[in-house]
Design a protein that fits this description.
The chain is mainly alpha-helical. It has one domain. It contains 10 helices and no strands. The chain is globular, with a radius of gyration of 16 Å. Belongs to the PlsY family. Pfam families: G3P_acyltransf. Catalyzes the transfer of an acyl group from acyl-phosphate (acyl-PO(4)) to glycerol-3-phosphate (G3P) to form lysophosphatidic acid (LPA). This enzyme utilizes acyl-phosphate as fatty acyl donor, but not acyl-CoA or acyl-ACP. It is found in: Cell membrane.
Length: about 200
């Protein structure tokens, strides 16, 4: 029962579309009408407002972390409910009920859950993400590299429950980035900060 409750709690928290709300509050319209059409920080950056993109990144990561910590407090830090809360928050961001299940790609939320699962792994995958993104100038390449490493790092340091949750999130990250992967192969993927027409 704990697992069901924490997963549902995580999903509802993850479903909050911070990118959409922030851009609308700034008077810049619907972020889904531009770029990739999703609600994440990378697409918010295409509005030209780095401050809004940073706020979106922090809030999207924060909702993942908050879901995991809340589950920990409710269950006396039982790993499986915490892992399911993180996976639920990630799923909620990607497929939010409030937006007819059309959300973001979940990378920031994944990072937030990773820090809450085990801060050591969180730091390592954040470094991998930044290094890969800085080297390639493709945000998606950084996200994919970090996601690929995360389950192994959790298995080594964070325990089986978090590794299983990370494997689920990694699989969904790759699925959500299938268009990006194709554009990377064709070298047509937009660089970081570059505007992209829908």
């Amino acid at each position: 029962m704990q697992e069901i409750v924490t997963f549902a709690l995580g999903y509802l928290l993850g479903s909050v579309p911070f990118g959409l709300v922030i851009v609308k509050m700034a008077g810049l319209g619907d972020v889904r009408s531009q770029g990739s059409g999703n609600i994440g920080a990378t697409n918010v950056l295409r509005t030209g407002r780095k401050d809004l993109a940073l706020a979106t990144l922090i809030l999207d990561a924060g909702k993942g972390a908050f879901a995991v910590v809340a589950a920990g407090l409710l269950t006396h830090w039982a790993p499986w409910p915490m892992a399911l809360a993180g996976a639920g928050a990630f799923l909620g961001h990607c497929f939010p009920v409030w937006l007819r299940f059309h959300g973001g790609k979940g990378v920031a939320t994944y990072l937030g859950t990773a820090f809450a699962f085990d801060w050591r792994v969180g730091i390592m995958i954040a470094i991998i993400w930044l290094l890969a993104a800085a080297t390639t100038r493709w945000s998606s390449a950084g996200a994919l590299a970090a996601a690929l490493c995360a389950p192994v790092l959790f298995l080594l340091l964070g325990g089986v429950a978090f590794a299983v949750a990370a494997a689920f999130m990694t699989a969904l990250v790759f699925y959500r980035h299938k268009g990006n992967i194709e554009r990377i192969r064709n070298r047509t993927e937009p660089k970081i900060g570059q505007r992209k027409t829908t």
